[in-house]
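Researcher: Structure prediction, please.
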Amino acid sequence: MTIRMAKIVAVTVIAAFFSLVVYGNVVDFDSNFAAVRHVLSMDTTYQSPNLMWRAIDDPILQIQAYWLIIGWEGLTAFFCWLGALRLMISWAGGSENFNRAKSLAVFGLLMGFLLYGFGFLVVASEWFAMWQSKIWNAQETAGMFAAIILGVMIFVAMPEPRDADTGDATG
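Model: Predicted structure follows.
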């Protein structure tokens, strides 16, 4: 049962993380919006004409992009919380039941990985050349978050060990 508890706790930690991220982005909107605005406008990059056509300078599109990020974070938190709850409910059931209960948690974790792995590392860092900015570069932090979330997702997705006598989970 310790392995199951660890999986539930790991998903709960990610759910709490995304809940606080959403809270911070809404309560202190301007702080992180400044980062999104600078990344999208590419105003602190090397200003290469070969890349600057990618920049998004329209303030309305920038705000929409920021709200899209916040909405994605909120849905990620929601699915992780729901997944953790579903895992808790199936805690005492058999391994097959617990394995089936993982789907929402894994989905929420996948959403988090997509945000940091694709959204921040691929889109922001490479498409909008965030890596070139000395001030608005979140590449290292995004990589750390993506790695942690991916690690939790792999851990949670691992099948439960089965008891040799009953065919049921022992972990």
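Model: The chain has a mean pLDDT of 94.
Researcher: Thanks, that helps.
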